[in-house]
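Researcher: Please predict.
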Amino acid sequence: MLCATAAGSLLYSPPAAYCNPNSKFPCLSSRISSFILNSPKRWRCRASLITTSDSFEVGALVGSYGFMNVTSYSGFQSGSELSYSPMDLQQLKVQDVGEGSFKIKLYEGRVAQGSQRGTPVLFKVYPGQRAGGIEADMMAANELSAHSSLQSSAEGICKNLVHLIGGFETKTGEQWLAFRNHGKYSAADYAALTSKRISQGSSSREKSWNSFQQQKDMEYRRYFVIRILQGAISGLAFMHDHDRLHQSLGPSSLLLNTISEKDAGYLIPRLRDLTFSVDMSFDSISNLEGARTLSESLWRRATAAGAFTALEKRAFGIADDIYAAGLLLAYMAFVPFCEAGIMDSLSLQRLLENTFKLDLEATREYCLADDRLEEAVKFLDIGNRSGWELLQAMLNPDFRQRPTAKAVLNHSFMSGSLL
């Protein structure tokens, strides 16, 4: 049915008849709800989740996006006589990757009833089995499981993770997950808008002649980027402390509540997109035999890299997230400091992995020769090249040598004290 808001706009409120009558929660999929119903330690989250569809109002379609689907894998043999190939270790060279078979839709909305009435939400909608197959249900259930686990922590909800408010299933089997709407911009959006602004400033005749103001603007940008990275790594550290891997960390999976560089003090970056999050508890890793899970590719890569025991696989998983965080650091160090089109995530990854084989000293020498990358180099040069040092550690070809998320947070470059 349609209902009018106080502002006069029309919002769609899914009728209760759309719910799954077989679910223990009237409007939460039985396939999804089993993840929280069967775990006693998650009772805090279960008690607070909104699970009736008529408690929500659904607004405009925000957009949709797909996902990368790993369809095959071929490992490599490591040994003392073989040189490391970074693409063999972690990246797409050893995998056939294609676009997923369905798209996930995003809708704006709000809570219509109860104590959280009026709270703005963002719906993430997974298609039912008819449209998306069993994979869609697995992904929706996995994301719900990840959030319910993390939000039931005795420490409370982490401010650097998006907050799941609830969810429901429609009659056609669609899984609707409702997240608090923390903002509409991602770190990727911020980087793209900033690089575009740099390009416009470079070509404009009105380019500021005030070198002092230009210097202040660059200081704001550097601090803002550091704050983004601090939030991302803080969220990752919380996940790792609570036996969860992110496994799809990137600039698009980091939500920002502001993109104004002068408002860095109010910035709260939040990790989202836990669709492929992995439970890395020892019990979960020990019971992988014969189970079809979304983490199969990760554990195959772990075995190929020489991680055989549960402890070694756990260490590999953490290091894999740190590698992705290293690529995020590199992205945020380059894209917001360069003109549009000079650098993008894929080009940067190829530069680091293929061209320079994760040799960050050689990468720096190359970048020094390109005036278009000058500000990026200066940023990573802060504190006697501390940014390059941290990046080299996070992208170490040997996963055993990469730092933990907490160690990254404690690095001098990440503290912001060097700015």
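Model: The domain at 185-415 is CATH 1.10.510.10 (Transferase(Phosphotransferase); domain 1).
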